[in-house]
């Protein structure tokens, strides 16, 4: 009886987590809303995969194949979560404190860029339409080096001037927040 209760709990737990993941997937694909912190999605994926180990299967070959597939998926999830390990997040409030501009600064080998988002509903971020990234030279990180200026034109429009990383080149980008 106790084993049956445990199996039921594992099944409900798996379905609940899978449902949460499905909702997050729909939010991302149809509304372009990402979780504010990337690691939350990776942890959720790992917990779903680990909980899948405890789902009942009937045949030994099925169990071995199921566990092998889950181990491969865990490894792939782990590798994808550390592939761009050099990320820094910066946030800037509009003058009326109603909009938050998020800049996720990334570098990998000699590449440098920053993704630009707007915070939504406290736990999501939305990439700004068609204007969502800033490029730099040789992995340069202007926000980490305090080589930028943020100018709020009004509460929904912002101008960013940043160092490109090559000599004294400065670039300017404008963003419209929703």
Description:
With 178 residues, this protein is an alpha+beta fold. It contains three helices and nine strands, in the order H-E-H-H-E-E-E-E-E-E-E-E. The strands form two sheets. Strands 1, 2, 3, 4, 5 and 6 form a six-stranded antiparallel sheet that branches. A hairpin with a 6-residue loop joins strand 8 and strand 9. Helix 1 packs antiparallel against helix 2. The protein is elongated, with a radius of gyration of 21 Å. The termini are far apart. 13% of the residues are buried. The model has no long low-confidence stretch (mean pLDDT 81).
Largest sheet: 6 strands, antiparallel
* Number of helical regions: 3
Uncertain segments are: none
Question: Which percent range describes the beta-strand content?
Answer: 25-35%
- The average pLDDT score comes to 81
What's the helical proportion of residues?
25-40%
Q: Determine Rg (CA atoms, Å).
A: 21 Å
Number of DSSP-assigned strands: 9
- Class by helix and strand content? alpha+beta
What is the string of SSEs from the N terminus onward? HEHHEEEEEEEE
Tell me, briefly, the overall form: elongated
| Intertermini distance | 54 Å
